[in-house]
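Write out structure tokens for DUF2897 family protein.
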Amino acid sequence: MEWLMNPWVIIIIVVSVVIGNLAALKATANMKFGQSKKMKNLQEQDDIDAEKQNTVDKKENSEQKKDAQ
């Protein structure tokens, strides 16, 4: 039990835990989840909705100008 309290053993254990955590983080950082496709589709849908709203707004503005004349 005395060898377990040796500073060199403690340092080796701490360094190995840190290296293991960094390796695990590196392995999981590049994972791709299905949500990215969903977010892309939602963004595309928002863009389409914005374009539709712009066309509706343009039609309403043109109708208001005709009514004003």
